[in-house]
Amino acid sequence: MELALYHPEHGYYERDCSVVGQRGDFYTSVSVGELFGQMLAFQFASWLDECQTRNAECGASDIPLQIVEAGAHDGQLAEDILFWLQRRHPDLFARIEYWILDPSPRRQEWQRRRLSMFAPRVKWFANWGEVQQAGGVTGIIFANELLDAFPVHRLAWNAAEQRWNEWGVRAMADRFLWTRLPELHANVTALAEPAAALSTLDAAVRASAWTSLAPVLPDGFVLECAPFAELWWNIAALSLRRGKLLTFDYGHTTSDAINPTKPHGTLRAYRDHQLVDDILAAPGEQDITAHVNFAAVTHAGERAGLTTVELTEQSRYLTRIAQRTMQQPAVFGEWTRERGRQFQTLSHPDHLGRSFSVLVQERA
Ligand SMILES: C[S@@+](CC[C@H](N)C(=O)[O-])C[C@H]1O[C@@H](n2cnc3c(N)ncnc32)[C@H](O)[C@@H]1O
Prior knowledge:
By secondary structure, this protein is an alpha/beta fold. It has helices at residues 2-6, 12-15, 29-32, 35-57, 76-88, 90-95, 105-114, 128-133, 186-190, 203-213, 227-239, 254-257, 294-303, 314-327, 329-332, 337-347; strands spanning 65-70, 96-101, 122-125, 137-144, 153-158, 163-172, 175-181, 222-225, 240-252, 268-271, 274-276, 287-289, 292-293, 307-313, 356-363.
């Protein structure tokens, strides 16, 4: 998955910036239109004001504020947010920096091109080490559909032996095949808990539900675990000095993940807006993605000292912001028919509203 998505030359996310959106393979909230970015910018402005007030109370009003976006892809969401802030909150716009975290020089290049008009306000970082060297983040760190694009381990339940096996990928002639590995990968075992070799099991499941579920799990039941996503979130949380950390993704909690009636796991491939049966086919030419385990990610943030503000459906979250924008029309601007249409797509349960969740954590 790492190679298929991120190989510097052949990786799916390196090849072409138009893989997201109508001409690509899948839609995100960003490709629906500029409303998503405008609503985030509206919310971020009030959080940054709060942050500034807290800084002032602590006698640190001169600390600069940042919005940090990870997984910015072609820079579209950054453009929507910065454009709105520049027009609607010019004073705040002049005070903040927009940082983009992206390890890929090629994607950074796409982003630089798109965001050239905001040049002095935008800075790029390849990894969290660089962000921490710059003093960490006071403000907001966020991502849209990043964690579901991190590589996962794919485990299969071995009912006879009451343990997990891991699926690996074998190269044969001109194609790839799934193959059961004799041992779990070190990434999985390093994070293993006594109850099961899964980093993604949250405490409740480890303690109780797991013991009752294991005997009834069907042989071959598939579960993904995403140690990279958890580690990434934990480091993001450690890099946040004050403010909010949030992500929009599709996902579930551990008890949804270990559901004997859904035995096939959530790893999927998309091409031309269609689900592809063979996840291993055409590496580099189709997207590969898996549900985020929000329970595990929440723990990863709390381990770094963050408090969880909420985990909720995207529809609820955006509806709340929309209500506040209607109380401040002079700031947000008029709700045109086009905005209404985009809002429907972002929030309706049949579109993106229910499948996507928002996790918000904070350091006060
Ligand atoms: C599913 S796309 C989402 C793009 C965009 N946020 C949107 O909503 O349209 C995930 C993006 O995250 C990028 N990405 C993957 N790993 C990353 C990492 N460690 N740091 C930053 N970006 C990463 C991918 O290359 C890709 O551009």
